[in-house]
């Protein structure tokens, strides 16, 4: 990402959500994005993932420039090369676990690689739930389905927007451990927005945003160090 700016609205109502942000996210790394409310985290994620286009600047995935792509081109690129995990699991209630996981492949017209699918089901611990429907699963299991769905296309990057935001502490830990394993064992690149210093501590690097700028990065983050940095950003001052 090079000198990326994003302005919402026009004239006197214009809000600069990102201000000339330049950053490279390492392939095969786990990056967490933190910052106070309104600092631009979601905007950063949306621009990096091709869900939204920046007002100015360059966003690249591998060698592909995203900033100038049409909506249709972005849709095709997202389907083929990016995985998403959101706070709300966004599963289709009428489909089984397997059908939910393979939905991105069907949308892209890509055949299902059965051994890869079986491996993913095993990795997320749902091999014995393959024919269940989402309503028959716990919240943590549903988020595991969403992670499996994000991984099934072998995306270059998995983007998470508060992926553990709807989960209790223990279940959140399982999901974070799973994301960590995809990085360590599959070489997956993961970028995750979170409010939770413990969640951020599972990442290799934390980016801190404030007022549309990246104001700091932290390697090998501990929950305490992340919480301390957030406090100094005024994130939790009431
Ligand atoms: N669609 C939009 N139209 C106008 N302003 C927007 C829009 N989306 C975001 N903003 C503004 O841009 C700024 C950054 O918003 P963003 O959602 O990226 O922050 P955030 O760090 O993700 O916040 P939070 O932690 O509260 O989710 C905020 O001032 C917000 O009000």
From TrEMBL:
Pfam families: ABC_tran. GO terms for molecular function: ATP binding; ATP hydrolysis activity; transmembrane transporter activity. GO terms for cellular component: membrane protein complex; plasma membrane. Keywords: ATP-binding, Nucleotide-binding, Transport. InterPro entries: AAA+_ATPase (IPR003593), ABC_transporter-like_ATP-bd (IPR003439), ABC_transporter-like_CS (IPR017871), ABC_transpr_LolD-like (IPR015854), MacB-like_ATP-bd (IPR017911), P-loop_NTPase (IPR027417). Gene3D superfamilies: P-loop containing nucleotide triphosphate hydrolases. Residues 1-236 form the ABC transporter domain. This is ABC transporter ATP-binding protein. It comes from Solihabitans fulvus. The lineage of its organism: Bacteria, Bacillati, Actinomycetota, Actinomycetes, Pseudonocardiales.
């Amino acid at each position: 990402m090079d000198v990326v700016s994003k302005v919402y609205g026009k004239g006197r109502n214009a809000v600069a959500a990102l201000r000339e942000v330049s950053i490279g996210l390492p392939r095969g790394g786990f990056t967490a994005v933190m910052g106070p409310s309104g600092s631009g985290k979601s905007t950063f994620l949306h621009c990096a993932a091709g869900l939204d286009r920046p007002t100015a600047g360059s966003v690249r995935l591998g060698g592909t420039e995203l900033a100038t792509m049409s909506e249709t081109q972005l849709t095709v690129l997202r389907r083929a090369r990016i995985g998403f995990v959101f706070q709300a699991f966004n599963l289709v209630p009428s489909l089984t676990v397997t059908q939910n996981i393979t939905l991105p492949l069907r949308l892209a017209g890509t055949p299902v690689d059965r051994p890869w699918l079986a491996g993913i089901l095993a990795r997320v611990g749902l091999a014995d739930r393959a024919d269940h429907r989402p309503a028959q699963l716990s919240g943590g299991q549903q988020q595991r389905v969403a992670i499996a769905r994000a991984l099934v296309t072998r995306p270059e990057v998995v983007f998470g927007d508060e992926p553990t935001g709807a989960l209790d502490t223990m279940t959140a830990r399982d999901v974070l451990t799973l994301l960590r394993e995809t990085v360590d064992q599959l070489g997956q690149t993961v970028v995750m927005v979170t409010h939770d210093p413990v969640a951020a501590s599972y990442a290799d690097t934390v980016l801190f945003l404030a007022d549309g700028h990246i104001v700091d990065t932290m390697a090998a983050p501990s929950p305490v160090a992340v919480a301390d940095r957030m406090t100094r950003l005024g994130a939790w001052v009431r």
